[in-house]
Structure formats: structure tokens, C-alpha cells
């Protein structure tokens, strides 16, 4: 069920629109068959939507076959569009040269193929009758949540607040209490947001704060607002928390007046738990609550950081996963039946080693730990717990209902295009980094990010999708990562996604081999050395093959024919032994990401950097081997300053020794365009850094990383004046013995100010890493 049918059929219809727009190039018989296919695709979409969530095995089997037909239609339509473009652009005839095994596809009898697809879809639709699907409408219980105040007897005694949660709660309480003693004329209601993934403990933290502030507010109101809230119900819920008799009004103006009357000049604490939209606040409650007294607060808990920002909070706090010791404490507290039984406690302690291994499945998520504890409590023996460790029940049968319901809410709230992108991330093996540029290219290849002819590149749009998944806490940034472009998928979320994709994606982890199943898998992820290439060939319907197995031989040379792939957008050869690129490499002028480009000079004096001249669409570029460049004019030919889409640049020398003057000349002529936001320089041999680092042309720079600088003695004097610089990392620069002035900017203080106070650290810089650090700061 990896296919999100509504999104997939929308992409198919867009393909058909492109084909119809080329009507002059499409034979009439093809055109009629495509139109007929479009109508059947729409009917299948409607059927799948009506039966969504059905457990009926007949319906499930029929939906699976319909999805298979949609995949076949996608292949046929894509090939037809390619053939049309073949006739319009002679350059694309290189496809046969590049991929000889695709030669037969060029001779494919499209008319017979589309006739077959139309017949297949007709038969599938005939098996569906309206009466057979009656009663199959499916609505999950989690979509129907009342607007209620929190029960006064809510049990949170089994939760274990860790140091992080205790620290945040104390900080928030201090902020709230200090505001109560502050300016009595400051009657603006302030907001604090608590953000994190589902099940991380946001509700518990809000409950903890509420209980500690008991008696500090006239009214304490708790709301759990659904996505489909109604304004009258929301207002009545708040009024009921302040005054039991709200008069049963239904008119909005009356309800708003009644609420204003109830909270006028009163100090109010409103907790809006698990918020999915800013509108309950901005459109409904913000107006009436403006009459609250000084020191009134709103606590918002949400899974979406972008939503939190839209509510304009004064503070945002992000909860992180529990540490292993706290996870064990929570599990132990959950599975003990008698809290004071020392014998039982010793029995549980003997299982701590295997218990910690099982807890890795929960990955520090409190809700997952509580759910898992219910299963472990029933069988508290070493053998049973070891069986639980090896069991892949969550992948085969789905997550337990309570955990599944909570994660499904986050999944169901995603727009269609993000649903399929999220599910696709489960193809990466557990624990592997999901880099933005890599997964975006995979999404583009699958057609998840259509090229709609707008000025925005698909890669830029894909990066927005990626960052939205991060903001919704469905992908988690790796610690220390800047820009959140290197993330991982939480173990529990991965299990949830893998269960949904199990009919279409085969995941082979270490020790596993290909399945003997005759099932048509569309995607195969291999992280097992036991898999043979002949086994992979058995899967004839694959659309994506992802291999992540260590120990493969390094690629040493790119084929000459790669220059014919003029639609290529992503190329990563950074972990290979490629030392040079084929002639006319610059013909790949659609490249957006190029990693590991080898800088070299051949026997004739020709420099590979010249091939970069025409790659004007590059957004991310890594150049390595710059110690091999002997002439400053060669580096100029790369024309990096003209690449206006370039946002990420890594310039790298690969040896530990080099010529200082030559290095300075080469790097001085590699000035990037003003669009660059992330810059890394590695292995630079010059006594000083490139001149352009001291110029105003790089004002957009947000991250600067300098590493392995054996000869450099000083940093650019104007680093502190770069207006957007947020992160500075300097590593292994042994000749830099003093640092300080270059990071400071003049203070806007009077002339009488002490000289030591005339400079301040720029407010934009929030991360500075200096390692190792035998340096002296000024003064």
C-alpha cells in the first residue's frame, strides 16, 4: 500500500496532459487510447478512495491488482512521452546508445500496450459493483476527538520526567511566574510552544507545568482541538471551563461576548494540546481572550514546528528522545505490578541487558515504551524477551493499535505529495543517514516531484518537501547537523511506514535473502551481502533498486557514454576512485548536484575544471583534488561566480602537503556566486584564506567550515561582518594561535564607552566550533 493512489493518479493525469499537449506528434489512434485510459484511471482512483481502510480480503486483493495496473500505466505513459520527445529532439536518440537493453522499448507497439491496459482496467472495474462496497466507508476513530477539558483524574504517575523535561518545565514556570510580577500594563496574552514528534511527552510536560502552577491562575483551561473543529463548540468548551452555565448560545457574537465577560481581567492559563492548525487560536480564541488580565498564558503542544511559529510564540521548546537510562526506568516502572516488591524488582533488573536491546526498537519514544511494556509484562523471562527482540511482528502485523493511531494522525495530516515522500523514506536501511539531495533525486525519479514548467527547479521543490517532513517531526535531524539536510527516520515511524509499503517494497536486511514469493515488488532495498545479482534479476517489476552493502569494489572510471545522459540531474562519485572525467563532460548541463568532481590536469595541460563552465544549474557542488591544479587560469575557467543557483560548495585538497603560493592562486580564482549559503574548504595550503572570503560578494553565507589548514595563520578579518553567518567551524588549523577580533563587529555605543565594550559578537552567529583549541582570545 505504498502507493498514495490519489497523488499517483494525479501524476498520471499530468503525464496525459503533457501527451495531449503534443497532439501533433501523437498518432490519432494513440491519442484516443490515452483518453480512454485516463477515464479508467479516474474510476480506479474513486474506487480505491471509497474502499480505503477496508479489511475485506476480496477488496484488498482487488485494490492491489488495480494499483499494479496503475504502475503499468505509468510505465507505458512515460515511455510514450519519451518516444514523442525522441521525434521532437534528435539529441535524445542517445538513449539507445546509453542503454542498449532498452532498445526493444523503442520498438514497443504502444497501441497494443494501451489496448491491453484498457482491457485489464475494464475487467478490474467490472469486478467492482457498488453493492459490494456498501458499508465499506472507513473513518478512523482518531479523527473524531471531542473538544473537552482534561479530566481532573488524569493519571501521569507512571511517566518518568528526565532531566531535559524537568529543566524545560522549570524554565517555563519561571517565565510565567516572572510575567505575573512584571508590568501590570502588559495585558497581552503570551504563547509558549512545545514541539516534538508524536508520543515524545508533550502532553505530559504540559500536564506537569499545569499541576505545578495549580492555584496561580483564576482559570486553567485544557483543550484538545481536532482538525475539524467548529467555532461554536470551541467557544462553548472554553466558556464551560470558566463558567458551568454558558446559556446554550449558538450565535457566535453571543458566545464571544460570554467568553469575554467570563475572562475579563482574569489571569488565565489555556493549554491547547496536540494542535493541528493555527486557526483555532488566530480565528476563534485570540480575539475574545485579549481582555484577559496581565500574566495570562497559552501553552501550545504540536507536532509541527512551522505551525508553532505561525502562532507567534515568545518561546519554542523542542522535546528530544529519552536517554537509554531514562527509557529503562520508564519500562521498569511500567512492567512492575507491585512498586514496593523488592523481589520483583530484582527479577526485572536481571533482564536489563536484553531489555535495553529491546528498547532500541522504541528509540527513546515514551509512548512506544509504554506500549511495548504491556507486551513484555505478560512474559517476564529471558527466553520470551529474546524472542521479542528477534520478532518482526511490527513489520508483519503493524504497530499496536494505540501507537498506530497516534502515528497515523501525523501521517493522515500530510498533504498527498508528502505522504508518498514519507513512505518512500522507509526504503533506507535502519540507522542509515537520509541526505536531502539523495532522497530528493529518488523522489524525482519516482515522479513524486513533477516538473510543472515553473521557474522553481524540482530539486528546490524537493528540498521544501524534505524540510516540511523535518518540521513535522517525521524525519529527525542528526545531532550536530546544520540545515537539517542529514536526517534519520525514527525506528517506530520506519516500522509504521514499512508496514504500509510491505505489498510493494521488499526490504532485505543483513542475513536475509530474496523472497521466494511471486509477488510483484516495485522497490527493492538491499543491505544484505547474501543477496546475489541473479536473485535481484528475478524481480521483473522493479522501479527502484537501492543497494547499501559495504565491500563493493570502487568505481575507477566513468564510461565515455555518460556524457549522453543530458537529462542527468544527480551524480555522486565522491566515494569512488575516479580521477578524471570523460571529454565533453560539460554536456551534462542539467546537473543540479555534482559530488566528488575530480580536479586534474592532463598531459596536454587541459584542466577538468573547464568542464564545469557550462553546468549553470548546479545547486550543490563538491570539487576534490584541487592540489592537482597547477595554473590559476585553469581554476578561473570553472566560472563558479556565474552559477547563480549554487547554494552549497565544498572545495577540497586531498593530500597533506602542497605548495602554499600555488594553493592561494588557485583558490583565489574559485570565487563562488553570491547565492552560496554553505561553504566548506578542506586541506587548503595557503598562508591566508582566499581573498573573496573578505569581500562583500558572499553576504548570503550562512555556514562556513574550514578544516585541515596546515599553513593558514589568520582568519579573514571581516567574518563578524557577514550579515547572515550562523555557523562557523574551524578544525585542525595549527598555525592559527589567536582568534577573536575577526568574529566581532563594532558596537553602536557612545565614544565614552570602554574600549573593551566597543565590539560585540554578531547576533546571527549561533554555532561556533573550534577544535582543537589551543588558541587565545583577545585580552
From TrEMBL:
Keywords, alphabetical? Plant defense, Repeat
Disease resistance protein winged helix domain segment(s): 427-496
Domain called R13L1/DRL21-like LRR repeat region: residue spans: 609-732
Q: Does the keyword Repeat apply?
A: yes
- UniProt-recorded Gene Ontology molecular function terms: ADP binding
Could you tell me which residue ranges the NB-ARC domain spans?
A: 186-339
Q: Which GO terms describe its biological process?
A: defense response to bacterium; innate immune response-activating signaling pathway; plant-type hypersensitive response
Claim: Transmembrane is one of the keywords in the record:
no
Signal peptide start and end residues: none
Spell out the InterPro entries in the cross-references.
Apaf_helical, Disease_R_plants, LRR_dom_sf, LRR_R13L1-DRL21, NB-ARC, P-loop_NTPase, WH-like_DNA-bd_sf, WHD_DRP
Output the superkingdom of the source species: Eukaryota
Q: What is this protein called?
A: Uncharacterized protein
What lineage, starting at the top, does this entry show? Answer: Eukaryota, Viridiplantae, Streptophyta, Embryophyta, Tracheophyta
Amino acid at each position: 500500500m505504498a502507493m498514495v493512489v490519489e497523488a499517483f493518479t494525479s501524476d498520471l493525469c499530468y503525464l496525459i496532459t503533457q501527451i495531449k499537449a503534443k497532439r501533433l506528434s501523437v498518432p490519432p489512434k494513440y491519442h484516443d487510447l490515452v483518453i480512454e485510459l485516463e477515464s479508467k484511471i479516474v474510476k480506479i482512483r474513486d474506487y480505491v478512495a471509497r474502499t480505503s481502510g477496508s479489511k475485506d480480503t476480496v477488496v484488498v486483493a482487488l485494490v492491489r491488482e488495480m494499483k499494479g495496473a496503475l504502475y503499468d500505466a505509468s510505465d507505458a505513459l512515460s515511455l510514450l512521452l519519451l518516444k514523442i520527445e525522441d521525434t521532437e529532439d534528435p539529441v535524445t536518440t542517445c538513449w539507445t546508445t546509453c542503454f542498449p537493453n532498452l532498445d526493444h522499448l523503442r520498438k514497443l507497439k504502444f497501441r497494443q500496450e494501451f489496448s491491453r491496459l484498457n482491457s485489464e482496467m475494464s475487467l478490474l472495474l467490472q469486478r467492482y459493483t457498488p453493492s459490494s462496497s456498501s458499508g465499506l466507508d472507513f473513518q478512523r476513530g482518531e479523527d473524531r476527538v471531542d473538544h473537552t477539558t482534561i479530566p481532573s483524574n488524569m493519571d501521569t504517575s507512571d511517566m518518568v520526567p528526565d532531566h531535559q523535561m524537568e529543566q524545560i518545565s522549570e524554565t517555563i514556570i519561571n517565565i510565567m511566574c516572572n510575567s505575573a510580577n512584571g508590568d501590570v500594563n502588559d495585558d497581552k496574552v503570551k504563547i509558549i510552544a512545545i514541539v516534538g514528534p508524536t508520543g515524545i511527552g508533550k502532553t505530559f510536560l504540559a500536564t506537569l507545568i499545569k499541576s505545578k502552577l495549580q492555584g496561580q491562575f483564576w482559570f486553567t483551561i485544557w483543550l484538545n482541538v481536532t482538525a475539524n473543529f467548529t467555532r461554536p463548540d470551541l467557544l462553548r468548551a472554553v466558556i464551560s471551563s470558566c463558567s458551568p452555565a454558558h446559556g446554550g448560545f449558538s450565535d457566535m457574537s453571543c458566545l464571544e461576548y460570554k467568553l469575554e465577560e467570563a475572562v475579563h481581567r482574569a489571569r488565565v492559563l489555556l493549554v491547547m494540546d496536540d494542535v493541528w492548525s493555527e486557526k483555532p487560536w488566530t480565528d476563534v480564541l485570540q480575539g475574545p481572550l485579549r481582555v484577559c488580565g496581565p500574566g495570562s498564558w497559552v501553552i501550545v503542544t504540536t507536532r509541527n514546528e512551522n505551525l508553532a511559529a505561525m502562532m507567534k510564540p515568545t518561546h519554542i521548546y523542542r522535546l528530544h528522545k529519552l536517554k537509554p537510562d531514562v527509557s529503562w526506568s520508564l519500562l521498569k516502572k511500567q512492567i512492575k505490578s507491585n512498586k514496593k516488591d523488592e523481589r520483583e524488582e530484582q527479577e526485572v533488573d536481571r533482564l536489563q541487558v536484553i531489555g535495553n536491546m529491546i528498547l532500541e526498537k522504541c528509540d527513546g519514544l515514551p509512548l512506544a515504551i509504554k506500549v511495548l511494556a504491556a507486551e513484555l509484562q505478560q512474559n517476564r523471562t529471558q527466553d520470551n524477551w529474546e524472542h521479542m527482540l528477534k520478532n518482526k511482528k511490527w513489520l508483519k502485523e503493524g504497530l499496536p493499535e494505540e501507537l498506530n493511531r497516534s502515528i497515523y494522525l501525523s501521517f493522515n495530516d500530510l498533504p498527498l505529495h508528502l505522504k508518498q515522500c514519507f513512505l518512500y523514506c522507509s526504503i533506507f536501511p535502519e540507522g542509515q543517514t537520509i541526505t536531502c539531495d539523495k532522497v530528493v533525486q529518488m523522489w524525482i525519479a519516482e515522479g513524486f516531484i513533477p516538473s510543472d514548467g515553473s521557474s522553481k527547479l524540482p530539486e528546490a521543490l524537493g528540498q521544501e518537501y524534505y524540510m516540511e517532513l523535518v518540521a513535522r517531526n517525521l524525519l529527525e535531524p542528526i545531532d550536530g547537523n546544520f540545515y537539517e539536510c542529514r536526517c534519520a527516520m525514527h525506528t517506530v515511524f520506519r516500522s509504521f511506514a514499512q508496514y504500509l509499503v510491505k505489498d510493494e517494497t521488499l526490504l532485505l536486511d543483513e542475513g536475509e535473502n530474496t523472497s521466494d514469493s511471486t509477488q510483484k515488488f516495485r522497490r527493492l532495498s538491499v543491505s544484505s551481502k547474501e543477496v546475489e545479482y541473479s536473485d535481484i534479476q528475478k524481480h521483473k517489476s522493479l522501479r527502484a533498486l537501492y543497494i547499501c552493502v559495504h565491500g563493493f569494489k570502487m568505481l575507477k572510471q566513468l564510461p565515455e557514454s555518460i556524457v549522453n545522459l543530458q537529462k542527468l540531474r544527480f551524480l555522486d562519485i565522491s566515494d569512488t576512485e575516479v580521477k578524471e572525467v570523460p571529454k565533453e563532460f560539460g554536456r551534462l548541463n542539467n546537473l543540479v548536484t555534482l559530488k566528488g568532481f575530480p580536479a586534474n590536469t592532463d598531459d596536454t595541460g587541459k584542466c577538468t575544471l573547464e568542464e564545469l563552465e557550462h553546468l549553470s544549474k548546479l545547486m550543490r557542488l563538491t570539487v576534490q583534488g584541487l592540489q592537482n591544479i597547477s595554473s590559476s587560469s585553469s581554476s578561473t575557467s570553472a566560472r563558479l561566480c556565474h552559477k547563480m543557483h549554487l547554494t552549497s560548495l565544498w572545495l577540497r585538497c586531498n593530500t597533506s602537503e602542497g605548495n602554499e603560493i600555488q594553493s592561494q592562486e588557485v583558490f583565489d580564482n574559485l570565487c563562488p556566486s553570491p547565492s552560496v549559503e554553505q561553504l566548506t574548504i578542506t586541506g587548503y595550503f595557503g598562508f591566508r584564506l582566499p581573498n573573496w572570503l573578505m569581500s562583500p560578494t558572499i553576504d548570503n553565507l550562512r555556514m562556513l567550515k574550514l578544516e585541515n589548514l596546515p599553513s593558514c595563520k589568520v582568519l579573514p578579518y571581516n567574518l563578524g561582518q557577514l550579515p547572515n553567518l550562523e555557523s562557523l567551524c574551524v578544525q585542525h588549523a595549527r598555525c592559527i594561535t589567536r582568534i577573536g577580533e575577526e568574529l566581532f563587529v563594532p558596537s553602536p555605543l557612545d565614544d565614552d564607552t570602554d574600549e573593551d565594550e566597543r565590539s560585540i559578537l554578531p547576533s546571527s552567529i549561533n554555532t561556533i566550533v573550534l577544535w582543537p583549541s589551543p588558541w587565545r582570545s583577545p585580552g
